[in-house]
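Subject: for your reference before the review

Hello V.,

The reviewers asked for a structural picture of the protein, and I figured it would be easier to keep everything in one thread rather than splitting it across files. Below is the amino acid sequence we used in the manuscript, unchanged from the supplementary table.
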Amino acid sequence: MPTPYGSRGGLAFGAEELCVLRRALDLALNPSPVSAEDLQACLRLAESVDEAAREGARLRAFLVADLARYRAALPGTAAGYLLLLEETLGNGYRPNPDDLAALRALRGNTTAARLLAHCRALAERDVRARPAVRALPSSRTRLLALVGGLASDESAGKPADRPTTRPQSSPPAKNPHPERPIPTPGEVFPPKRKPAPPPANPPQQLAAG
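And here is what came back from the structure prediction:
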């Protein structure tokens, strides 16, 4: 089973576990049929890594709690506190403001002065890393880069200008036959003629001879 932490807080593997890990990496890079034995070995290694990670988390929590107790009892526990702080830093712990204040109070100690310089460097590194964490996600960056998105408005320095005048209407179409005048309604619809009145004295029909 891999041990929780190595010299700088990473997992430490044995020779047999390294062989299994190398085989698993080879299978990931060059997929090929896996034997039942290789599969079982990879599963056992994965379970061991998970257990080692859980054990490492428990160990780190214990060290941090123990460090707080030593810090609260300063300056009488300076030697133990400095030793424990160095071990905890090696396991990935990041010093808090209380640790920096304690180290400044113990700066007359050579070990405390060295740890104070190291903790300040870690704090500055964390501060420089924060802007990268707070950067926009890639999906939002792509949205801002779309045409008409916020990026185009911001690059112009002001909101998109809107037209303030109404577009002029197009002139009316010209008559394709300007030489022919447009007929009047009277020419298109002439008045109906009244029927002729019947004669006043209709001719008498001649009697049949």
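For the response letter, the relevant points are probably these. Confidence is low (pLDDT under 50) at residues 139-160. The chain is about 55% helix and 0% strand.

Happy to draft the paragraph if you're swamped.

O.
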